[in-house]
Structure formats: C-alpha cells, structure tokens
Design a protein that fits this description.
The complex is a heterodimer of chains A (387) and B (403).
Chain A (H helix, E strand, L loop, with lengths): L6 H17 L5 H5 L3 H13 L20 H14 L6 H15 L2 H12 L5 E4 L15 E5 L2 E12 L6 E7 L10 E7 L5 E6 L7 E12 L3 E2 L5 H37 L1 E2 L2 E2 L4 H26 L4 H30 L10 H13 L4 H13 L8
Parallel strand pairs in A: 1-4
Antiparallel strand pairs in A: 2-3, 3-7, 4-5, 5-8, 6-7, 9-10
Helix pairs in contact in A: 1-4, 4-7, 5-6, 5-7, 7-8, 7-9, 7-10, 8-9, 9-10, 9-11
Chain B lengths: L5 H19 L17 H16 L18 H13 L7 H13 L2 H12 L5 E4 L15 E5 L2 E9 L9 E7 L10 E7 L5 E7 L5 E14 L3 E2 L5 H14 L1 H21 L1 E2 L2 E2 L4 H29 L6 H27 L18 H12 L6 H11 L11
Parallel strand pairs in B: 1-4
Antiparallel strand pairs in B: 2-3, 3-7, 4-5, 5-8, 6-7, 9-10
The chains are: A alpha+beta (387), B alpha+beta (403).
C-alpha cells in the first residue's frame, strides 16, 4: 500500500522537498561529483539543523524520534533525497549508526554514541564488503583475533561508502576461524582514526564517495562489539534488510524524478512539427517507466510494512531490492534514450540518474545478490509470498 | 471501507483454503483451474456452477454488496483475498464476468434491476458474458456498430459481437450497443442487459489454438430487448464500460493466485526431479529464474492490493492507470511463468496429456503456453493499456486523433 502520510511524515516530506530544492538542486550535481568536501560538510550541517540526524534516535539519547513509525518517516525523507540524487553520509549514518546501535547496542553504547549522532558530531558507515565482482557479500575474510584487552582487526574492505567523510565504521570480521557466510562473524564499532587504518579513494560511477579501507592490526576493545560476538551475521542480516528497504525508497524517488523530467522533455522536444511525446513508441516507453514506478512503490510499501517481522522482513527486503534495483536500471536507460544525444552528456542530469542507478543497485546487496537469496529460500523449501 | 490487517488476511486465507481443499477433490479430470476453464466443457461448467453455489453458501461470494442483494458489505480487500485463494487452489466458482458485471449493475442499475439480478449473480444461478468486441471494433471498441433501435417499450438489436467468452453457456449478456446512429463515437453507446434465450440470437463457436471452445461469435437478428433492461441512461454507456474496466481488473486477483500456483507447482517439480547428483533446483540458473518470477509475482500482488485499496476508498485519478498496469503486469508474468515452465520441462514441455512421466504437472504448462498469449489481448491489449497510462496519468497527447 502506498504510504498514507501522517502529520509528522507530511512535514518531513515538505521540509525535505523545500530544503533539497534550494540547497541541492539538480544543477549542482556536477559540484557534488567533484566531491567538494567543503560543500558536503555544509550540506551535512544543514541536515543537522533541520533535525534529521535525530530522526531514528529516541529523546532519551538526544534525538526526537526512534518511535515505531520513525523508520517509515525516514523512508519518506529518503525518497525525497533520492529524487534529488542526494548522497552523502546521511544514509549510512542513519542505518549503520543510529539504527544499528538503537537496535543492537548495549545501554553503554547507546549512551556513548547515539547523542553524538543526533547532534551531528558523528558520521558512521558500514565496512562489510570485501570481494568486488560477482562474489557474495558474505565472503568476509577480515579476521579479528582476540587478545587480552579486546580484538585486533586485520583485512581489507573493498567498498566502504563515505569512509573519508565518516568518523566511525561498523566493521564485520570473522572471529571464528574456518567459518563462512554469516557464521562466526562479529560486528565492531571502530573509530576510523584508529592506528592501523588506511583509507583510499575508489573512483566509481555514482555520486557518493567510495573508499577502500585497510585494517592493519587495528586494536579495538571488547566494548566495541555490537551485538553478540560470533553472531554478528544475524545483526548484519537484520541491518541489511533495513538498508535494502531504505535504499529502495531512495531509488523510488530517483525513478520518479527520471520519469518526471523525461515526460517534460518529451512534451517540449518538437520533431516533425509535433512533440516526440505524441509518438506511440515514446508513450509506451514512458508507460513502462510509470508501471515500474507504481510497482516499485508498492513492493517497497509492502517490504516496509513487514520490516518488524524477522523472517518476512529479510525475505521481502530481498524481493523489493531485487525488483526496484532492476526497475531503476531499465527505467533510467529508457529515459536517457528518450532524451537522445543530450542524455549521454554531463550537461544533462538524466545521465547522473542513469549512473546512480547502477551504484544504488549495488548498494545494500546488489539485485542479483538478493535474487540469489530468494532462490536460496526456494531451495530451502519456502514458497515465498502469498502473505 | 475497512482494510484488513496482515494477520486478518492470513487467517482468512487459511480459512478459505481449509474450506476449498476437500471441494477441489470433486473437480473433473479436465479441470486445471485456469481463467477459461469453466467454459470449455460441460463437466467443467457443472463443477464451476456447483463451486459458485458452495462459495456463496459460505458467505464468500461477492460479499461486498449489502445483504438484500446477497452480500454482507464485507471489505473489498476480503474479496481480493478470497479470489486470490480460489485461484491459487484452482478451485473455480468465482466467475470474473459475474463479479464485474454484477458490480456495474450494483453501481448503475435501477432498484428493479438490482433486486432481480444481484442475488442470482451472488449465488451463481445467473452467469454472464460480455458483448464488447465486434469484427471491426477491437481495440477501438467505441467504433462498435451493433444497433439498438427503440420501438415502443423495446429495443430492436441487430449486429454482431465476437470474442465473446462463454456466450454459449451464459444466461445473460452485458452488451454494448449503439443507440444513436448519428453519433459514431462514444457518445451514442448504451449498455443493454440481454437475456441469451431471446429469439434471434445465434451463437457460433470459435476454437482456440488448443482446440478448446471458450470464445464465440454472437449474431443478433431483430432481437427484442425490453427498455427496462437498459443499464444507466441511453447514450451514456461509455462511462459504465470505463468503470467496468477498473472493476474487471479486480478479477485479476484470481488470475494472480493462479499464476502463483503455477510457479509453486513448477518449483516443487524442480525440487522433486533428480538432476545430476541432486535435483533441478540445485541448478543456480533454474533456481534464480524461479526466484525472479516469485519476486515479480509478489510485486504484481502488491499492485493488486493497492488497486483494491484505491477502489475501496472511492477511487482516484490514477485508479484507471493502476488497473491498466495490473492487467499488463498480470498477463506478462503469466506468460513468463509459462515460458520458463515449458523451457525447464524441455521435450516434455510440448506434451498436453498423459501420465505424470510424459506430461509433468498434467500438461498444464503445454496448455498455458497456448492460452497465455490471449491474456495480452483479451480485455484490452497490452498496447491499449499502455496508451491509457500515457494519456491518463502522464498527460501525453492522444496519438490517434479522433478518439
């Protein structure tokens, strides 16, 4: 079901639309692309002023949200951000900082970290993925060896979003030797300024900054373990379900923006004496994009509605991420085609949406990875759906 | 109207399933539970009508109407859940035409028409067909030529309908006719409720590629229809047919349930069929294709329930486009499931009937291979659906001026 917005969500949506239009309008995408640090910092401060950093954090820990409906409100906000291809540390800080600690942290961790996220002081990202290419997200070889005062982390994370802009990362490491997949993993909250960490920029097609982060005998104490030691796979699985659904919200926003700008273009662009949008072939391309938008929106709403129901949450997060990722890829490609030559240039924003579609499809588990998870459910004898 | 919580939906699904499971055992051997199944044989038709009666007795047939018309004012979502489950169980008894035509009568009928037809539609006593297409009025259905001329308290109907599903078994036809000969557009179109036993109606079969008979040509030769059988106002029938299109899509729920069942059957088949040292489902390529279809079906289901919500809340500007998207999405996913099915089955994919060894899953994929293409055409082609979306929600100019 499409979101029926409550008062709080309506306000967030309106203020987001206003802010993003003013401070982050699409003609500034090239500035973002140049990865101008000062510009990003400026935007971050604006977000904090608007209170968005406290959305998932309960007032006991310095926020104003953290209520049962807060995640739905976040989706509304992310959809607006997606519409403007707004990138930056907000997404990962909310999912792998605020939500991660609020859901899985100890009381001490909550007191130590959540108020600093709410105040805008801390930005957090996820350091999980190691094997680039068509490998599995769960193929994690970074080891955390226990010693007297804690653990020592060693390994390299290949794709860490915004590590350069972030203060902490949530690092997944193997604490039980010889295990694979989700088994024997532990999650650590790690200060990115710790000794032994090196960060390298990784040029990618999307607007967000991607980095490679190496851990060389990085020492962390026992208090930095998030959730139960050796059972971090379940925590990561839980967080990835939320992240996948949240990513879908951004993608739905981007899909709608692509459709809107292309419908506008199809009506403005005149060839053979009439707008190209009066040609049936263009109408059918656009009808397909509209259908993809409607279907993406509905499966996102469905996944969001079951997000608190463990097994269903993970299953429908995969269903939604697999579908919306591919829908955005094919839709932005069609929208670009309708724009003709100008669509292939940096001059036109549609090219940014086309590129971002690929980046976002790969984020929080690629659509192919999620298809494989659904395939595994089928193998395990679960007939998904009909719920 | 109220929506059902997920818990309530799950409970209703379980209840419907429990009710249907023993009844399905009585289905004839030719019954496979597809959309066109009721119409293709006498045994199927008898079973379908019996199921319609039983479903009504359980209170689950067209329960959205008030009690005096045979319903109990249940939420529309409940009807979607029930229809979907009936489709999934291959149970039959929910008639797509009865559902949407009944709803049109409910919305536009006189008190007399409602009292006469609705209770009998609800309990399965009265079955319907719809007379839309004509030999020269397919996608451009408003160009229809079947004439209804007023003579006293009767209309005299002359002309021809085609692709009329179930005209050979239906008791009544919901017919679009031209009442204003001078108006060649939508303006002069009216809806008549025609008793199929009326003198002058000639029904001739059309055989589908699989040899089955569900479509017909219907000829009208001076057919007398009482003026009290006019639905809504004269020359104002286009509005009704437009609403009917949205209502028809609610009937998609049953078809989606059926598609889901086809996929689950196929998945089970792949799990049980040995291949190499394991089973077909161990093949990553097969498992991933099945997964992609399972994903797509969930997406279509979400769309269907959303349309139900929109209609429940009194409709919206985009309801018609949602209905179009649902029609296209359902027929496309049916087609994909059919094609993946016959492909996985390999040489057995072509076998229509036989033992489980030669005709896996009763040959239902060989049959669906032949019927699925019609779904992209019947009830408005996928192309027309896309046109409507482009004009209705995207505001693009009509590409066929004059309509």
């Amino acid at each position: 079901m499409t979101y029926a917005l409550d008062e709080e969500q309506r306000q967030v949506k309106e203020s987001a639309a206003r802010f993003l239009k003013k401070e982050y309008s699409c003609d500034q995408l090239h500035i973002v692309e140049e990865k101008n640090k000062a510009y990003a910092e400026d935007i971050w401060n604006h977000l904090v002023e608007l209170g968005w950093s406290g959305l998932l954090i309960h007032e006991d820990y310095g926020g104003w949200g953290g209520t049962p409906g807060a995640f739905q409100t976040l989706l509304v906000l992310l959809e607006e951000m997606g519409r403007h291809l707004f990138v930056g540390p907000y997404f990962s800080t909310m999912l792998f900082g605020a939500l991660a600690i609020a859901r899985h942290g100890t009381e001490d961790q909550k007191r130590a970290i959540l108020p600093r996220i709410a105040s805008g002081e801390l930005k957090v990202t996820l350091a999980a993925e190691e094997m680039l290419g068509p490998r599995d997200l769960t193929e994690i070889e970074t080891m955390a060896m226990a010693y007297a005062d804690g653990y020592e982390l060693s390994g390299t994370k290949a794709l860490v979003e915004g590590a350069n802009d972030s203060d902490f990362c949530l690092c997944a490491a193997r604490t039980v030797e010889g295990r694979s997949g989700w088994d024997g993993l532990t999650l650590f909250v790690v200060d990115l300024k710790s000794e032994g960490i090196t960060i390298k920029d990784l040029p990618t097609v999307g607007l967000e900054r991607q980095c490679e982060v190496s851990f060389n005998e990085v020492k962390v104490d026992y208090a930095s373990v998030l959730g139960d030691a050796h059972r971090g796979g379940a925590v990561l699985d839980d967080l990835l379900a939320f992240a996948a659904v949240a990513k879908c919200a951004e993608m739905v926003g981007a899909l709608e923006a692509s459709l809107d700008m292309t419908v506008r273009y199809a009506m403005e662009r005149v060839q053979y004496g009439r707008p190209i949008g009066s040609n049936q072939v263009i109408q059918h391309y656009l009808a397909n994009v509209w259908m993809d938008l409607a279907r993406s929106r509905e499966i996102l709403a469905k996944a969001a509605s079951v997000i608190d129901q463990k097994r269903l949450a993970s299953e429908f997060a995969s269903v939604a991420k697999a579908w919306v990722g591919k829908a955005l890829l094919r839709s932005t490609e069609r929208c670009l085609q309708i724009h003709g030559a100008i669509g292939t240039t940096k001059e036109h924003n549609i090219s940014f949406y086309y590129k971002q579609a690929m980046a976002w499809d790969r984020s929080a588990g690629s659509s192919n990875w999620h298809v494989r998870r659904v395939a595994q459910s089928l193998r395990d004898g679960r007939m998904i759906g009909l719920t | 109207m109220a929506l059902l919580t997920q818990k309530e939906q799950a409970a209703l699904r379980a209840k419907v399933r429990e009710f249907l499971d023993p009844l399905i055992l009585e289905a004839p051997s030719s019954w496979r539970g597809a959309l066109e199944d009721p119409y293709v044989s006498d045994e199927n038709w008898g079973y379908h009508r019996k199921m319609a009666r039983k479903i009504d007795e359980s209170g689950w047939s067209l329960s959205i109407w008030p009690a005096k018309y045979g319903g109990r004012e249940a939420p529309l979502i409940e009807q979607i859940v029930i229809n979907e489950m009936v489709g999934y169980c291959k149970a039959g008894g929910i008639d797509v035409f009865a559902g949407m035509i009944g709803s049109a009568i409910f919305l536009y009928g006189t008190e007399e028409q409602k009292a006469f037809h609705l209770p009998k539609i609800a309990n399965g006593e009265e079955m319907w067909c719809q007379g839309w297409s004509e030999p020269n009025a397919g996608s451009d259905v408003a160009s229809l030529k079947t004439r209804a001329t007023r003579q006293g308290d009767h209309y005299i109907v002359n002309g021809q309908k085609i692709w009329t599903s179930n005209a050979h078994r239906a008791d009544w036809m919901f017919a679009m006719v031209r009442t204003d000969a001078n108006d060649k557009s939508r303006g002069g179109v009216s809806v008549l409720l025609i008793d199929m036993k009326t003198k002058g109606i000639d029904v001739r079969p059309i055989r589908s590629m699989n040899g089955e008979h569900s479509f017909n040509e219907v000829y009208f030769d001076d057919v007398k229809v009482p003026t009290r059988n006019l639905l809504g106002r004269e020359d104002d029938g286009w509005k009704i047919t437009k609403d009917l299109m949205s209502l028809e899509r609610m009937g998609m729920a049953g078809e989606i349930g059926h598609v889901k069942r086809l996929l689950d059957d196929l998945t089970e088949y792949c799990r049980k069929t040995p291949s190499g040292s394991g089973c077909l489902l161990d093949d990553g390529r097969i498992a991933e294709r099945l997964a992609e279809l399972a994903i797509e079906i969930e997406v279509v289901r979400a769309l269907c329930y959303e349309l139900g919500r929109i209609v429940s809340e009194g409709g919206s500007a985009s309801a018609l486009s949602f209905a179009c998207a649902l029609k296209v999405s359902t027929s496309e996913v049916l087609q994909k499931v059919a094609y993946v099915g016959v492909e996985i089955l390999g040489t057995a994919g072509q076998v229509e009937k036989g033992s489980p060894e030669v005709a896996p899953m009763g040959g239902q994929f060989a049959r669906t291979y032949q019927t699925c293409v019609g779904m992209n055409i019947a009830g408005g082609t996928s192309e027309i659906q896309r046109n409507v979306i482009a004009w209705n929600v995207l505001g693009l100019p009509r590409c066929n001026p004059g309509v």
